[in-house]
Amino acid sequence: MAKPEVLSEHACCGGIQRFYQHHSTEIGLPMRFSAYLPPQAAFGKVPALIYLAGLTCTEETFMIKSGAQRIAAELGLALIAPDTSPRGAGIAGETESWDFGVGAGFYLDATEAPWSTRYRMESYLVAELIPLVTHELAIDAQRLGVFGHSMGGHGALTLSLRHPGLFKSVSAFAPVCAPMQCPWGQKAFAGYLGADKTLWSNHDASVLMSTCIEAPYPEGILIDQGLADKFLSEQLHPQLFEKACAKAGQPLTLRRHAAYDHGYYFISTFIADHLAHHARILRGVQ
Predict the structure, then answer these.
(1) pTM as predicted
(2) Looking at the predicted structure, is the pLDDT value of residue 144 above 70?
(3) 12: closest CA among 65, 82, 69?
(4) E strands within 14-138?
(5) Of all residues in the chain, what percent are helix, strand and coil, respectively (each to 5)?
(6) Does the annotation mark 150 as catalytic?
(7) 133: which of 25, 52, 260, 272 is 20 to 30 A away, CA to CA?
């Protein structure tokens, strides 16, 4: 396992904020990620949260805009944020749309050519990045949580359901909860997965949850949603995930907030609640 290259390092809230690059064997290209290590990481392994960002974002977005490091330092949590897609794949059309291609990997493995050779974000995260950071950094592989925003909220929900046991805690900000029923998801799934909608259903959080015969996360899932979010009615559909959780007996805290929109002012307002949610659960993991 090749050691990742540190691109920059910054003292932050008593800990260290780093930005890395490494060659990905799953994707076949250089990939970047960011990592915040709290002060406690100097003395031993700490729990970590994987944050999956939304459309057009990079590995920098969350670390720059969320203000999460101060809370993570207090709680003793590491934060890991990957990029949202491959960069420099050279695929025709990959930069033509803001909601498909570069910056829009949707945290799945494409099965359709030409995307299938490089757009393998699920395998990259699960089989490569997580083993890499738990090997190279002071992170406890048995105490991992996942959360994300918008497309990344979709990723957090689906990956947590598709890989049981990998993550012990889950939350999301304004997630795409039913991608099979919204324009973003339909465009991405058609392009990456083709016309077979049985493949689509494997990456739809509401469908995945509705097939669970018992609660996969008995400690609860937290979702925050702004009611002034311009994408709410057409793209996000949290009520469908809420219904699926009720069917599965999955405890869900879905908080709807008047006046809040889809951006990082919203995320920064409620980030402390999300980190506390994960810290509470991860502290109980033996």
Answers:
(1) 0.98
(2) yes
(3) 69
(4) 15-23, 30-37, 46-52, 78-82
(5) 40, 25, 35
(6) yes
(7) 272
Is 237 one of the catalytic residues? no
CB 48 within 8 A of CB 79: yes
Catalytic one of 24, 66, 85, 150: 150
pLDDT in tens, 47-98: 999 999 999 999 999 999 999 999 999 999 999 999 999 999 999 999 999 9
- Residue given tokens 């406690």 in the structure block: 40
CB 204 within 8 A of CB 178: yes
Per-residue pLDDT reduced to its tens digit, 248-264 = 999 999 999 999 999 99
Q: How confident is the model at residue 286 (pLDDT cuts 50, 70, 90)?
A: low
Q: Which of 34, 149, 229, 237 is catalytic?
A: 229
At 1 the pLDDT is 72
Catalytic residue among 22, 154, 203, 262: 262
State in Å, rounded, how far the first CA of the chain is from the last one.
27
Cα distance between residue 213 and residue 45, in whole Å:
34
For the question of residue 229 being annotated catalytic, the response is: yes
pLDDT value of position 2: 77
